[in-house]
Design a protein that fits this description.
By secondary structure, the protein is of the alpha+beta class. It is 35% helix and 30% strand.
Length: 205
């Protein structure tokens, strides 16, 4: 029996050693990129991305995904320096900070995922003119922890790709709705009859 236990123990040690050695050589960098054509002008798209509180209206990370998640916001209301942190049993914890925001081209962010010590991921949502709309590209990339991280690269990329696809579809609907609402308001203002000038009262002799 002792001999059997010893063999089993040595086998487990060997398996752990193989797991660690292989993990050290696996690539730990992940990168996700998704694109979608959005029929809206930059001034209607940009506020939805530059204001991190607006992300809850279109991003996949919301209360439906994690009903117990807690959010916190800081910095300016939108644009460079604005940040959003989250903590929940499904979403984990992390922090996103806008590092650049430009109406004409997009928004860039630094991310701290499952850590409070260092930036371990960076992302951007950028757009370029294509026909009457905008080609919107969402990119995110980062590095997973050593040893075990390499085993999860594929899973992370697949999961984020699905989240980005969902988010971009929601972002498209939200931006196009904002533009349609603005256009309708402008047409209504043009169609409204001009206000009649006040009639001057005759001067008293």
């Amino acid at each position: 029996m002792k001999r059997v236990l010893k063999i089993v123990g040595l086998g487990l040690v060997a398996l752990v050693a193989v797991f660690v050695v292989v993990g050290l050589f696996l690539p730990r960098q992940w990168r996700v990129e998704q694109t979608l054509l959005i029929d809206a002008e930059p001034e209607h798209l940009h506020p939805l991305v530059s204001d991190l509180k607006e992300w809850q209206s279109w991003a996949a990370w919301n209360k439906e995904m994690d009903p117990q998640v807690k959010w916190e916001y800081g910095g300016p209301a939108s644009g460079e320096g604005a940040w959003w942190s989250w903590s929940g049993p499904q979403m984990g914890h992390g922090k996103m900070t806008i590092t650049k925001s430009d109406v004409a081209s997009g928004v860039w962010v630094d991310e701290m995922i499952e850590t409070d010590k260092e930036v371990n991921a960076r992302g951007s949502i950028t757009w370029t003119r294509q026909g009457q709309g905008l080609q919107v590209k969402w990119v995110d990339e980062g590095t997973l922890p050593p040893v075990i991280g390499g085993y999860f690269v594929g899973m992370i990329e697949k999961m984020l790709s699905e989240h980005f696809q969902t988010g971009l579809k929601n972002l498209k609907a939200a931006a196009e709705k904002r533009q349609a609402t603005a256009q309708e308001a402008a047409r209504a203002a043009q169609a409204a009859p001009p206000e009649a000038a006040p009639v001057a009262e005759p001067a008293t002799p």
